[in-house]
Design the sequence.
């Protein structure tokens, strides 16, 4: 060892290693999407809102299990599975209102799209990756509290853990299907808005405004006394997944669509139409960028 | 390494109401290439077409022997791009973003982190790499933009106005970085409207004006080729008139003429002076600056 140090210019080293192509790039965008929405590797204030909502959703599920544990019996007075979507409905909508703009707006307004598209990616790859990131996060958000509830109730069930799981095996498809319908409706609306609005807060507010105002309009107009007024029930976007949920779980819910005389499949078709219209709107915006 | 960095054939691009590129033919070799022209000359449009970000209205383009229209991914795997405007997410650290830029080019996560660290060190941001981009100055921004363009070791990097917005020190450092990239074996296509930057940095130059190709060639040749400094004994104006009639471009000074011609200018001069019964006091290849060559090209 010498006591004399020297400074060596490391210069530039070429890279001869593996290049994984478009699939790896799509994976990188998905992982970046998770980090962006959850505020990971970002300043503390970016973490506050998403983690508060996640914590609230998980704690509510745990609270319902705790109440039943304290009560010493499983009571039907507390919401389960289908009803639980109603109990927490505002929280995923708020999360979606923030997540969709977080995924799309900064890339567009800060010019980062130019960097994405100088890599071996097409715009379709980029949008697909963002969609997968949003889908994964939202499904986790819908399903994690349901899983906690399901396992908690199974643990408290007098007939035994595995007997309860066997008796309630149908929730294993019902809950994900309903969660997917909720995601399709809210995800497509929020992404369509975020594709056009240039600020995160404004995009979140616009999406929430559309959901709330359209519901009110549908309620008011579908009961009006003119011919064809009932068709305005389709404007109750937020209630379409709820009507599908009532259908799947066989719940006696009251929705604007139901009151206007439409069957649940009409609500499901409306969700499909909204998804298609939103996809067209998003593509119309992004195909001409950057 | 390919023989041609890029070639274009009758390349045109039209924006609504504006012809941005008009029938541009180029065959550019690897190296440090300067793309010079005034604002609106078509430099950024040409770069975006070379990257496949814009589809040309007419003509064809090949980059590194790949057809950009049909082999866009093959081209993008081998190039880097530093856009002119903002392109950095302000809520990420420099290290995170440059790592992400490497991952977007298909590099594995560990290699991406290592390459990001090396690229940021190369551009002089070793100490600042864990700071958020929103806290960076303009000069640091430009360096991060350059780091993300080279992090995946491209064969060629397209730099759109890399020195814009920099103070004189920052500009000198950026030009030095660009020179070093060439020394490392990365071809550089560098657009600017400042001719002095090209003279300091590039080996080859492409001059555009209002979408048309003015000149293209090695920097050394553009400075001298085809321009002859002529001192006449006799009627200088008559000789100049005769040369113009023969198709030469003639600039008249008090003591001499500058004669430029696509064909052999010496032969033209001999014919013109003989027909005007003038003598030749001195005749030699003139050295002109790139700026004179650019404005001479514009005049024709």
Sequence:
């Amino acid at each position: 060892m010498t006591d004399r140090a020297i400074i060596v210019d490391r210069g530039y080293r070429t890279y001869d290693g593996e290049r994984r192509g478009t699939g790896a790039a799509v994976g990188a965008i998905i992982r970046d999407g998770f980090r962006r929405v959850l505020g990971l590797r970002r300043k503390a204030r970016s973490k506050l809102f998403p983690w508060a909502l996640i914590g609230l959703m998980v704690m509510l599920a745990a609270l319902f299990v705790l109440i039943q544990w304290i009560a010493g019996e499983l009571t039907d007075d507390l919401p389960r599975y289908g009803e639980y979507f109603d109990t927490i409905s505002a929280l995923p909508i708020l999360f979606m209102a923030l997540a969709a703009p977080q995924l799309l707006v900064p890339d567009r307004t800060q010019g980062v799209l130019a960097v994405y598209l100088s890599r071996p990616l097409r715009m379709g790859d980029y949008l697909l990756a963002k969609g997968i990131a949003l889908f994964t996060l939202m499904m986790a958000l819908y399903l994690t509290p349901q899983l906690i509830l399901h396992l908690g109730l199974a643990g408290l069930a007098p007939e035994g853990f595995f007997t309860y799981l066997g008796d309630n095996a149908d929730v294993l498809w019902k809950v994900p299907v309903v969660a997917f319908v909720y995601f399709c409706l809210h995800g497509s609306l929020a992404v369509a808005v975020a594709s056009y609005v240039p600020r995160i807060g404004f995009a979140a507010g616009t999406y929430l405004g559309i959901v709330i105002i359209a519901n009110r309009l549908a309620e008011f107009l579908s009961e009006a006394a003119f011919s064809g007024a009932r068709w305005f029930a389709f404007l109750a976007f937020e209630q379409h997944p709820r009507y599908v949920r009532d259908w799947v779980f066989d719940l006696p819910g009251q929705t604007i669509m139901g009151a206007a005389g439409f069957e649940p499949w009409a609500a499901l078709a409306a969700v499909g139409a909204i998804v298609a219209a939103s996809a067209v709107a998003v593509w119309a915006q992004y195909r001409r960028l950057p | 390494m390919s023989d041609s960095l890029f070639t274009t054939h009758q390349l045109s691009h039209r924006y609504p109401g504006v012809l941005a590129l008009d029938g541009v033919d180029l065959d550019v070799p690897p190296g440090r290439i300067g793309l010079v022209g005034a604002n609106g000359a078509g430099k950024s449009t040409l770069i975006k077409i070379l990257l496949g970000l814009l589809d040309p209205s007419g003509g064809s383009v090949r980059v590194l022997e790949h057809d950009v229209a049909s082999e866009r991914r093959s081209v993008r795997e081998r190039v880097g791009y530093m856009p002119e405007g903002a392109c950095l997410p302000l809520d990420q650290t420099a290290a995170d973003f440059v790592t992400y830029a490497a991952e977007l080019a298909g590099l594995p996560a560990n290699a991406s982190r290592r390459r990001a660290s090396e690229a940021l060190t190369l551009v002089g941001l070793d100490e600042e790499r864990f700071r958020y981009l929103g806290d960076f100055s303009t000069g640091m921004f430009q360096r991060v933009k350059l780091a993300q363009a080279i992090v995946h070791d491209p064969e060629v990097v397209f730099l759109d106005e890399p020195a814009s917005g920099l103070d004189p020190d920052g500009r000198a450092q950026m030009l030095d970085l660009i020179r070093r990239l060439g020394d490392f074996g990365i071809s550089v296509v560098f657009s600017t409207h400042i001719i002095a930057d090209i003279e300091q940095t590039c080996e080859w130059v492409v001059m555009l004006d209002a979408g048309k190709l003015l000149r293209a060639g090695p920097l050394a040749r553009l400075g001298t080729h085809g321009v002859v400094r002529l001192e006449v004994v006799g009627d200088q104006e008559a000789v100049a008139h005769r040369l113009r009639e023969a198709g030469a471009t003639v600039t008249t000074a008090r003591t001499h003429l500058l004669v430029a011609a696509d064909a052999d200018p010496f032969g033209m001069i001999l014919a013109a002076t003989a027909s005007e019964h003038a003598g030749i006091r001195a005749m030699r290849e003139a050295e002109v600056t790139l700026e004179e060559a650019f404005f001479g090209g514009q005049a024709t």
The mean pLDDT of chain B is 89.
